[in-house]
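To close the chapter, one final illustration. This time we ask the reader to focus less on the individual chains and more on the assembly as a whole: which components sit near each other, and how the overall shape emerges from the parts.
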Amino acid sequence: MKKVSILDSTLRDGAQGEQISFSLQDKLNILRILDAFGVDYVEAGTPASNPKDLEFFSLASKIPLKNTLLCAFGSTRRKGRSIEQDEYIQALLEADTPAVSIVGKASETHAQHVLQATRDENLAMIADTVRFFKSKGKQLIFDAEHFFDGFFENSDFALASISAALENGADIVCLCDTNGGRTPTEIISVVNKVRELFPSMRIGIHCHDDSGCAVANSMVAVEAGASHVQGTFLGCGERCGNADLSVLIPNLILKKGRSCKITHLEQLCATARSIAEISNITVPGNRPYIGNSAFAHKGGMHIDATLKFRQAFEHIAPTAVGNHRRFLLSEMAGRSTLLEKIGHISPKLTKDSPELAAIVEQLKELEFEGYQFEAAEASLELLARRVLGLHKPHFTLVQYKTIDEYPAPNGKEQASAMIEVGVGGRIEVTAALGNGPVNALDQALRNALKVFYPQLDKVHLTDYKVRVLNTESATAAKVRVLIETSDGKMTWNTVGVSTDIIEASWLALADSIEYQLIGVE
Amino acid sequence: MKKVSILDSTLRDGAQGEQISFSLQDKLNILRILDAFGVDYVEAGTPASNPKDLEFFSLASKIPLKNTLLCAFGSTRRKGRSIEQDEYIQALLEADTPAVSIVGKASETHAQHVLQATRDENLAMIADTVRFFKSKGKQLIFDAEHFFDGFFENSDFALASISAALENGADIVCLCDTNGGRTPTEIISVVNKVRELFPSMRIGIHCHDDSGCAVANSMVAVEAGASHVQGTFLGCGERCGNADLSVLIPNLILKKGRSCKITHLEQLCATARSIAEISNITVPGNRPYIGNSAFAHKGGMHIDATLKFRQAFEHIAPTAVGNHRRFLLSEMAGRSTLLEKIGHISPKLTKDSPELAAIVEQLKELEFEGYQFEAAEASLELLARRVLGLHKPHFTLVQYKTIDEYPAPNGKEQASAMIEVGVGGRIEVTAALGNGPVNALDQALRNALKVFYPQLDKVHLTDYKVRVLNTESATAAKVRVLIETSDGKMTWNTVGVSTDIIEASWLALADSIEYQLIGVE
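The assembled structure is written out below.
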């Protein structure tokens, strides 16, 4: 099997993404995750332009890595300075990483306009820098910036740049579509040309997604002879981002028969989601392979076909990448999907039973109000139980009142909540302070209920999301609150919708607790 | 120039997207937008499986369209039924559209497993259905479902299917990568083969994005001879979605020299954003061409280079698609970006002035707390004015109190707010009810201030967004509120961060009003 090595630049190029801001600890955590998954190189920072990166590399060097080589990133030496005089080069050396990636100009226009360097000056800058780091025993990846644009503008200039890197010992020459504007047929023709001219060159590919082709461009480059790919997890990066490794890696392994150090591709989803969590970004539902909708079937015909033979509308088995198949609810999907989800509740539920029809009706009404049950299956189950008369509420709300004051009366918590709930024949009135009204209400409710249900002590909320539904109504808009709860073993999701964020949160909170207590007398 | 026709399936295949649910009015509005933009065909529904679609087509037929042909979608007749007996076929006819798209099986496995049809039965179903709709004078697009998968599995079967459609008069034969698992080199080889075998065939391409290659696959198909493309705006659709027309269209026009009815490509952003608004989805910031970050520069070196020559890190001019260049703030970007944004406030602000350094410090502190000023430039300007001592507050908050009660004391509004503000030497105390605590506080503040600043009457909030920053802290998490305000002419954005959603909203509200009053004595 043909091999390919993988460089993840989430911590370098990915950090240029608009929403991204990594702490030192974030970077160390992501490094550990990428190493465990089996990424060959982690390009983790630019010591020359960011002094914090030196601290990172110092700490990172103490982490025992089993798959990954740490890589620091920097430019060729500056024009008119020797290697020794260039403090940026010295900072890069100081990072003391086993691998170094050096970016140099492969476009005549860029060399002229950005560096004010002639062709010969540019070639000398590349040659000196590559030679220097090879003399220090580094693995050296040369990133030929704007290579494809440069090739179409002046191919001699572009080819001379990569030739200089190769001759001076670069281990990998990575061809970059820095502006992300190139398309697959262009990439194929240029990589073919480079492979013919430099048969001994280990070719890499680094694509940006400004034409929506970064993954495809990387794929065709590999098919044309590249054996090193660069990208970022989830495609984070400046502008439209980099080639998304969470899509590119399974494509190369599952569709193009490439092998690499990643031997547990079923860890892909977990890896990508952990990185997303640390990066504080949401994995888009429709992201190939790893998205929550990537194997979700909504159309009735598609669902029927998928029930007939599983691969009907799936390009790969979802388990191969650690994802799973889902059947969605919607007017189109119809009853068989719903039945698959809630059929276990009661034998009365069959495809044509009036009970199922009644649930569908209720579902439609709530969806019209802004509810979505795809991400709140615990609320769906409660809804079905309520319609079926199988739900005995474990508590009833009599009243609540939340107060939020500025300045905080006690100098600390601005919010307080009072709640009155009934359990069986008893009434409990409790109160709590909080750092916000929802937090105060959440605490007050738990205080009230734990008297009756001590098992609630083990439960905590693990996620809280707010979506404003009709943003143009501004502060009068409806909001949907999604809550994820865990008891350490199981996790469940509930939903609430209201124009009042406190009420929406209450509804999701109440469902979360009711769901946990199903079966408790 | 080579021509290409465009079919938008946002209202049909796009409606299969997990988050999508269109009302009748939504569909009519999207149709109007697509027609104005210059899309050739709008595939707007499946009359056979969704009775509501017949109502849509009846209303849509009354809209005068200047570019678009309405298209209804359905399957080939069912096995063992004549055209006349098949009520689905009759429903499709009843939709009374000038164009019809008919999906038929091009994969032997699917014909066997899903339809239980032999090769001959399948061919007869295709032939009969195409012939029938052609006899009714329709433009006919034949969608060869699973064509690429079918071709690799049994090419004779797949080719016989499209041959049957062609021979019976299909105007366009659209090759579908239904499962979205194919890659560019496969598409190139198969489309080349089809073009050689059927030189008179008008080839279309319909790709899904399960391998992240839908746009690239559509592009290479066009370069190999396809002259009709199908997709959805923003790539909405089942699982990972369809080829994103908002990326594919500019790629074909700007990069591959194709022409179509779209003559105002600079309307692309507005078109895509309107459709997103109606679909109630967010345009991802990093979406090529149309995303808010698509031409946003964050890295300091990139910004410097882009200031030197504009196309340094841009594959096209942002104005060509109605987007614009942005320079982002971040530790990496440095002072020149900040100066470009706020330099107009004071001549004291220069790249090396202590005033600018003080603003950078303040900015870093707030970013650490969770603020982001990229999307809140009005708050950034106020921050700078405060640091420079140029901001004279137009009001001061003495106290506020919001109360949220269930059940609502008056049976309607659950929330009320009291506020005490000082303006000059005067104190104003007002109160308001609201459908949520933030709404009530917003109203109370406006009531208090309009006594002093009648111009606030013209102002209204146009957008309100909430992001939970550290979701794992659940109801104790920090939230960031972004508010967009408009006075009918100008629009500005402000931000607030707190663990208390009411305080976060207050901070953004207060900035919004202060910004409007800059310059008012």
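Chain A touches chain B through 125 residues (CB under 8 Å). Chain A is about 40% helix and 20% strand. With these observations in hand, you are ready for the problems at the end of the chapter.
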